[in-house]
Amino acid sequence: MTTVAAYAAPAAKAPLERTTIERREVGEHDVLIDIKFAGICHSDIHQVREGWGEAIFPMVPGHEIAGVVEAVGPGVTKFKAGDRVGVGCLVDSCRECENCEAGLEQHCLKGSVGTYNAVGYDGEPTYGGYAQKVVVAEDFTVRIPDGLALDVAAPLLCAGITTYSPLKHWGAAPGKKVAVIGLGGLGHMGVKIAHAMGAEVTVLSQSLRKKDDGLRLGADHYYATSDEKTFQHLAGSFDLILSTVSAPLDFGSYLGLLKTGGALVNVGAPEEPIALNLFSLIGGNKTLAGSMIGGIQETQEMLDFCAEHGLGAEIEVIAASEVNEAYERVLASDVRYRFVIDTATI
């Protein structure tokens, strides 16, 4: 075991504090990563505060990890010391079920293992990226292309793949009209990626406060959802709507913005249940769907796509000591658009 410094929440809703954790020894097919940057995802806040249910403490959050390979096990063939790599939301799965074999490790039928707040197949809890180093199986490690700086690449390991996967699956492309609900950590990457895929992109946000940013990031149009006229003006407009917000919405109203046969895909995960009148789905043969990150192969594909198109996250780099303040600022929508921890400050 190797002792490394980390930032952890000792209990639910408690402030994060500096501590030390144990990382396993590098096994046959493991990669030891010197973490350089770790993104702060809204999911981290949900889990630290047990918004999604009972959690495991102490908790070291962080599933947007970018770093450099320090050492590899003797059986590793994909990576070597010095390689630039990333780790996203998963660190293991059974690798044998039909979903794993199809590259859908996030939907492993035995149960995928999260990067933190999870228990591995060895029975030990997992600890995330708010730390100096991590040991991960090579099969759950991805290569960060040279065209992406590590700091702007870190958020792609969650925010990037979470938006890339549904945009690709639901056909964002030239000739398609795509709306992104929310211009935050997820939404700003959704705008960038949908634009790069060639779609006509509209941002639907509570206000016009971030309009200039939205247009700069690739949106063609920007509307305030607080204005009732927006829903009248845009009725029946979109082939695809991607909802990135983590608060309950009036999905009936948003479904009214879809064309016949359109889809509203939700990647935000509100803590509260929603109510839905099913007539808003039946009329127009519409789809209300969900999407959860992506598999390892698709995550690598996303990174390559982002490098090809020059897409990195819009970030604010912070010291680890600022993490609790950063959490409050995320909840206040006071970040444009992703906090990234410089792990050298841990």
Overall CATH class of the largest domain: Alpha Beta
Mean pLDDT figure = 96
**Segments where pLDDT lies below 50 for 5+ residues?**
none
Output the number of helix runs.
Answer: 11
Number of domains: 2
Topology as a string of helices (H) and strands (E): EEEHEEEHEEEHHEHEHEHEHEHEHEHE
Percent strand = 25-35%
- Radius of gyration, whole Å: 20 Å
**How would you sum up the major sheet?**
7 strands, mixed
What structural class results from the helix and strand content?
Answer: alpha/beta
General form: globular
User: Please, what is the CATH homologous superfamily of the largest domain?
Assistant: Medium-chain alcohol dehydrogenases, catalytic domain
Helicity level, as a percent range?
Answer: 10-25%
- What name does CATH use for the topology of the largest domain? Quinone Oxidoreductase, Chain A, domain 1
Could you give the count of β-strands?
A: 17
Give me the CATH architecture of the largest domain, please: Alpha-Beta Complex
Tell me the span between the first and last alpha carbons. Answer: 19 Å
Describe, in plain words, how this protein is organized in 3D:
- InterPro entries: ADH-like_C (IPR013149), ADH-like_N (IPR013154), ADH_Zn_CS (IPR002328), CAD-like (IPR047109), ER (IPR020843), GroES-like_sf (IPR011032), NAD(P)-bd_dom_sf (IPR036291).
- This is alcohol dehydrogenase (NADP(+)).
- With 346 residues, the protein is an alpha/beta fold.
- The protein has two domains: 2-157 and 294-302 and 313-345, Medium-chain alcohol dehydrogenases, catalytic domain (Quinone Oxidoreductase, Chain A, domain 1), CATH 3.90.180.10; 160-290, NAD(P)-binding Rossmann-like Domain (Rossmann fold), CATH 3.40.50.
- Helix content is 23%, strand content 27%.
- It has eleven helices and 17 strands.
- The chain has helices at 42-48, 98-101, 150-153, 159-169, 187-196, 211-217, 228-233, 251-255, 279-282, 296-309, 323-331; strands at residues 2-8, 17-23, 30-39, 65-72, 84-87, 90-92, 113-114, 133-137, 142-143, 177-181, 200-205, 221-224, 238-243, 258-266, 287-290, 315-319, 338-342.
- The strands form four sheets. Strands 3, 4, 5, 8, 9, 16 and 17 form a seven-stranded mixed beta sheet that branches. A six-stranded parallel beta sheet has the order 12-11-10-13-14-15, with helices on one face.
- A hairpin with an 8-residue loop joins strand 1 and strand 2.
- Helix 4 packs across helix 5 (187-196) and helix 4 crosses helix 10 (296-309).
- The longest helix is centred in the C-terminal third of the chain and has 14 residues, at 296-309.
- It is globular.
